[in-house]
């Protein structure tokens, strides 16, 4: 009985002393704890994906994910890539755009220009959803044209007219072309070409999650999209303004109704 009571009293005293000491050294303890966690995360990031119990080669992972999605609506059968990111505190989050070889959906693009040559190029070569100049702006203002496009680009000559006449219509939808957003240029071909299959990504918390394919895509198409995502994400790491760039860690593939399967990616 006595030893047990003594043990409890000793533990209580030890906890009290630890708390008192912790109040004095809390910042230092937190700093050391964070350093230890960072070292552990970096070591884990360097561990081969094949060592994980849920690891599968991509081709095998796709067979499992497709089997799980049998009977589900085709529009919901999306394959998503999620990769953990190890980064120091204060490092800006990774962000960029991925140009997929096989887009997940058709992107509807609107082009505003009074340059007839560029308008013709957009119609004939890129088959964009909407093309026009001052006439198109007027029709949108009057409500005669549905705003059912996903992206919009313009040449500099028509930007003032866009801002003054349809800024309140397109602006809240994020569809008003502007130099700041990189959607205004003298030569629109490069912008439109890249936008047709371009998808933005951004690090949220400690991970990047990005839809990369549909389950009915072929293995080749999925692999090509994964390589495109890998290239873009790694490129965003090289442009980080920091002495210690981020590191890609555990990466999983999952489908809308399926589990997460670890794959090689980093």
Automatic annotation (TrEMBL):
The keyword Acetylation does not apply. PROSITE patterns: RIBOSOMAL_L1. GO terms for cellular component: mitochondrial large ribosomal subunit. PANTHER family: 54S RIBOSOMAL PROTEIN L1, MITOCHONDRIAL, LARGE RIBOSOMAL SUBUNIT PROTEIN UL1M. Pfam families: Ribosomal_L1 (PF00687). It comes from the Eukaryota. This is Ribosomal protein. Belongs to the universal ribosomal protein uL1 family. Keywords: Ribonucleoprotein, Ribosomal protein. The keyword Nucleotide-binding does not apply.
């Amino acid at each position: 009985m006595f030893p047990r009571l003594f043990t409890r009293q000793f533990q209580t005293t030890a906890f009290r002393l630890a708390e008192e000491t912790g109040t004095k050294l809390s910042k230092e303890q937190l700093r050391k704890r964070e350093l230890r966690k960072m070292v552990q995360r970096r070591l884990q990031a360097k561990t081969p994906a094949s060592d994980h119990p849920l690891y599968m080669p991509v081709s095998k992972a796709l067979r499992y994910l497709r089997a799980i999605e049998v009977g589900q609506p085709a529009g919901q059968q999306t394959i998503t890539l999620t990769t953990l990111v190890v980064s120091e505190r204060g490092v800006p989050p990774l962000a960029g755009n991925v140009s997929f070889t096989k887009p997940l959906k058709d992107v509807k693009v609107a082009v505003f220009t009074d340059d007839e040559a560029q308008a013709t190029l957009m119609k004939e070569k890129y088959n964009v959803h909407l093309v026009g100049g001052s006439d198109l702006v007027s029709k949108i203002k009057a409500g005669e044209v549905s705003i059912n496009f996903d992206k919009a680009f313009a040449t500099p000559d028509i930007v003032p007219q866009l801002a003054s006449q349809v800024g309140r219509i397109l602006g809240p939808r994020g569809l008003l072309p502007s130099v700041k957003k990189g959607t205004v240029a003298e030569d629109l071909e490069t912008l439109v070409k890249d936008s047709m299959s371009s998808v933005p990504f951004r690090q949220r918390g400690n991970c990047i999650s990005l839809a990369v394919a549909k389950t009915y895509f072929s293995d080749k198409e999925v692999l090509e999209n994964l390589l495109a995502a890998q290239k873009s994400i790694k490129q965003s790491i090289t442009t980080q303004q920091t002495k210690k760039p981020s590191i890609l860690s555990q990466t999983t593939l999952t489908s809308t109704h399926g589990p997460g399967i670890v794959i090689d990616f980093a």
